[in-house]
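Homework-ish question, so no full write-ups if that breaks the rules, but can someone show me the predicted structure for this set?
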Amino acid sequence: MDAPRSARQRWMSVLARADTGVLRRLLNQRAPLPAYTVLRGPEGGLAMVRGRAGGGGAAFNLGEMTVTRCSVSTEAGFVGHAYIQGRDTARAELAALADALMQDPLQAESIEKHVIAPLEHQQALKRAERAGKAAATKVQFFTMRTMRT
Amino acid sequence: MTPGFADPVADSQACFRTILDVMARPGHVRSVSGITAPAPLCDAAAAVLLTLLDHETPLWLDPEAEAARPWIAFHTGAPHGASFAMALSLPDLTRFPAGTDEMPETSATIIVQVASLTAGRAYRLEGPGLRQPAVVRIAGLPDDFASIWQRNHALFPRGIDLILCAGNTLTALPRSVSVTKA
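A: Not a homework solution, just the prediction itself:
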């Protein structure tokens, strides 16, 4: 039942970053939401974020972040999970449902086309825009080494 | 896969209170609600597992109950071990940790699923928590249960604690109670 790990990681990460309103709209546009059972949650909790200073530094606890998780089961028996940043329970539930549907061979193609791909595209644009803005503020330090080359 | 407690906080707290009550009054039969157990577990056994287990409480699961393992793993995350045991029939008690005289709390608590707690063979219970000896009827324990239990009871303060479950009812036999055939 488990899809290959890397493919599932990709769509779960896209779903975890999605905006609640957009995710709900995309899922509903495709077809009415199928019936499902909530197995756990949605419930909030904390996850410790660990960091490492430089390449060789020892790991340290950066701080805790809020995480909301949810697991649902579709009528076809596929179990979907979602772990998202923040406290948006509706988003966690929708993301878990979309994860379950992505594992269903009958639904995966349609969800990929109508939900995952548009979200991924939108997220890539947003990331590029931010990266572009950040790049424009980059300061070039002309050190001895860069001046020589 | 099916959900756990309908209302995880309230139902598990109510179930915990029920477990405390039956441990304090051996042989009293109480019921639990708010859960639909996965086969082959009964509702009471499933409720006890969800209430007592988490990722720090190792569980030994009866091979006969293997079908329920994914459900238990998903809802509790309990690792393999034997702080708790879930059995569909009474296992050999001597195979489980009975604790030490210095640390009797390290013994195992075994949850045993039986056929009935209202019909069957009658046992007479005596010990702490019982002002007068109580009689409890249990169907589904081995014929020589009274002598098996007396050997466990004799280890006190060491020994195994039992939680017996049938349908949505449960009762407990802590190590302190003495069991004889009635």
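Now go work out the reasoning yourself. Hint: The helical segments of chain A are 5-17, 20-30, 89-103, 108-136, 144-148.
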